[in-house]
Amino acid sequence: MSDKRDYYEVLGVSRDADERTLKKAYRALAHQFHPDKNPGDKAAEDKFKEASEAYAILSDADKRAQYDRFGHAGLGGDGMGSGFGINIQDIFGDIFGDIFGGGRRRGAARGSDLRYHMEISFEDAAFGTEREITIPRLENCGTCNGSGAEAGTEPVTCQTCGGLGEIRVSQGFFSIARTCHVCEGRGRVVQNPCDDCRGAGQIEVERSMAVKVPPGVSEGTRLRLVGEGEAGRGGGPRGDLYVVLSIEAHPLFEREEDNVLCRVPLSFTQAALGTSIEVPTLDGKVKLKIPSGTQPGTVFRLRGKGIPHLRHNTRGDQLVTVRVEVPTKLDKQQRDLLEQFAELSGEDSHPEHKGFFDKVKELFD
Fold first, then answer.
1. Tens digit of each residue's pLDDT (9 = 90 or more) over 129-163
2. How far apart are alpha carbons 313 and 115 in whole angstroms?
3. What is the pLDDT of residue 321?
4. Which region holds residue 190: left if phi is over 0, alpha if psi is between -120 and 50, else beta?
5. What superfamily in CATH does domain 254-325 come from?
């Protein structure tokens, strides 16, 4: 009878656990008991092996069916050493491949992403635009087709890594793959470099392209142009180009989400008597009626005169704030007329005016 623990018990899952649950349980145990985190701890190493073995069996549909029906005996009694050929490195690399280099395509590397800053006007941010830009980027050398080798020659296998592009370093029973420092992960080295790219396999060129800016973008918006970054190495994919937008300040308008803010001046008499004024908008000037008795700071809303929404077909509003200008220099006639106005209107008896000064008197008398 086998003295091995039940695989479901090892991973701490139920017998009907799905693949996602199995993987999550294994990841947690692998992180906890990995030999790198527990150097010299034989018990942790054994638990790591046990968890890897359990996951290797239960994550394979056929092996799991055998195990569910016959237990450990159905696996040849040993699991890790049986004819099923379980390899912890393969299992661990499948889940943590990004960390330990598992599944890496030898010699292939994705091209670098590029970043380009573009400044556009307030109006272009609102309504969209198209700009032609020119960027420097790395392209595969046309002379050597990206190999880096002189015409008529080929790169040779790297002697340091044996063409693998990586060097394995053992830590305990486990080995970790690191990029070869000699060939930089390519698996091959150039002995006779190309004259044009000097063995690099890539050269810098200037590339011009049109960039479409959609309506409604805001400060800091990133536009992603897939495949417009630098060329990959060894058949790897190109990187992407990110265009980061900066919006110029406008002399009249400010922005608050999808709304446009604007301040307009009114004279004292316009605010008191009422009037009709022309207000600038992104679509041109529009008439705005100012009712008599308009107070400083009053906000008028012009619906649909704001910024188009970036993701659906609507627009914000324009909010017009009134700023009443008080005259700073009065001649004698103007002063006399205003004094007459104050006397006739009984400003001292205005409810708000009277109430304020009554409160002041109560506080300080």
1. 999 999 999 888 888 887 788 887 888 888 888 77
2. 29
3. 92
4. beta
5. Urease metallochaperone UreE, N-terminal domain (2.60.260.20)
